[in-house]
Amino acid sequence: MQTKYINEMLNLPELRIHQILSINADELHIEALPLSDRQCCPCCESDQDVIRKGSNEPRTVRHLSVFEKKTYLHVPSIRMYCTRCEAGFVWTYEFVGPKERYSRLFRSHTVEQALGSTAAHSARMQQAPTSTVQRMHNEAIPVECERIYEQVWEEAKEAAELVLGVDDFAIKKGHTYNTGIHNLKGETMLDLLPGRKLEELRTYAQQHPDFLLLNPKAVVMDLAQAYHTWISECFPNAIRIADRFHVHGYVIESVQEVRKSIQHTLSPRAKAYLKANHRLLNPPAESLGEESRKRLETLLNYSPLLRSVWEWKEAFTTWYDCSLNFAVAKLGFERWCEQGDRIDHAAVRNTLKTMRNWKAEIVNYHQCRWTNATVEGRHNRIKAFQRRHYFTRNRSHYKAGILIECNRHRLLG
Predict the structure, then answer these.
(1) Is residue 137 assigned to a domain?
(2) Alpha-carbon span 397 to 391, nearest angstrom
(3) NCBIfam families attached here (predicted)?
(4) CB-CB contact of 98 with 37 (8 Å)
(5) What kind and span of H or E run contains 223?
(6) Do 220 and 235 meet the contact criterion of CB atoms below 8 Å apart?
(7) How far is residue 365's CA from residue 378's CA, in Å, rounded to a whole number?
(8) Parallel, antiparallel, or unpaired: how do β-strands 69-82 and 87-90 relate?
(9) What is the per-residue pLDDT across 354-376, written as a single tens digit (0 to 9) for each?
(10) Which residues partner with 164 through β-bridges?
(11) 236 found inside a domain
(12) Which phi and psi angles does 264 have, rounded to 5°?
């Protein structure tokens, strides 16, 4: 059988294919020999006095699949002896580690699949035992995490105008949370710390001096007081920005509270129609299609109060999008608050109280227009990771897996 191009297919430059031992429906067995006649002594690092002293049983090494067949390489286990050092050793191959039954290419490819899915899925794809793939995955995680961790922090330290994003996500909603630190301009996740309370955040800053060495221009976060206190302590010169989508959520929530209060005053038919289409009140009107706009107009005709609070919500979106600069934004924010003062509803009053308390952080968006939108997308990736790896109990493995999941595609790209 022709073996001229098999070496190139298998990517094994140190070997030459001697013969094809067997082929069946599932497996391919290939006998391969080393190209070189000698190998350097591990003690003196010279091959001048190295001789062969026979061979042991051939090694069988699982390699990457060829034409969807499991491929096994049968290579000689050659005993070597250095007459100068009087040291005996066994021929070592670059494509496979000592005493290993899987080639390095097979291990790296299998781990690559497992990082994006699960060990069980990768095992099915590679037709290998799940426990073996899981072991390879666990061995590769710390090394890959350390490489990525160093790279993302080096980028953050060298960034000219670093913008950080800080946000939490739930491990168990209502009980346990983690806080992620993100480089928004670099599109990477820098670190993951347990908890979201101020004491836990301060402890992290004390234990990680590299974090305090960063020089961010701005930090984007939600309206949690603990985050703003922590960032003002760590980076007093940074612009603290209230995340636009979190802030906008308060306004949308007040619109829905008004909708619920007037819903009970309508006829059964109108009540059912308003309840079924209540989500049309949330997005900007310009993003809706023609049919959706007609239904929205029907909803707004049910109550002048609902129309006024919806227009107030639309004015907030316009303020975010159309303020030319920071000075104009401050004046526009006051006019928007005055518009809300004319709406007589408790939900609107509560929202306005929150907005005025956080006026500086909200208006700071117009000094540095960044949001945590990419962070929220990354949270979806983290949630998918947690569903796939629900069995992970080791904190270091859990953290390493999330950092790899959130960074590797961007760094590889």
Answers:
(1) no
(2) 11
(3) transpos_ISL3
(4) no
(5) none
(6) no
(7) 21
(8) antiparallel
(9) 999 999 999 999 999 999 999 99
(10) 183, 219
(11) yes
(12) -75, -15
